[in-house]
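Please, structure for the following, as tokens.
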Amino acid sequence: MNLADLISVVLQDGLWSGIAALGFAMLFNAPRRTLIACALIGAAGHALRAFLMEFGIQIEAATLVGATLVGFASVWHARRLQVPSPIFAICGAIPMVPGTFAYRAMIGFIQVTTSDITTAPPLLADAGINFVKTALILSAIAVGIAAPTLLFRRRKPVV
């Protein structure tokens, strides 16, 4: 893939992810002054994930890096605009949720129930792989979003 194609893929991915993040921000009734930041954070996190995946990094690791960017950007914008960081983190992370893998896992498990003994093992293996990918991606999103808070949390002294 040449540089122009890479830039095109990443920008398109960021555009559509930013629109999705903006939609979820509006759905969750985020304050109007936070909408642009919600869209930018969602676009940046998903575009970074797409960029890394274009270089052969697995989706789970790329999601961890993208979600970490969302987490740090959320904390920074929350402090700058003096609003809770989940406003940005949730809207920015939702476009990274692995809906396709979860759908394939559930359909695979349903197909196993109606299959015979010869076709069930490959169906079960595919469904299991999709289920594990879903779980790992969701875990990467959770860890990535929580990382900045866990790293930079200010603890109050016990009196």
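The mean pLDDT is 92. The helical segments are 3-27, 35-54, 59-81, 86-93, 99-114, 120-152.
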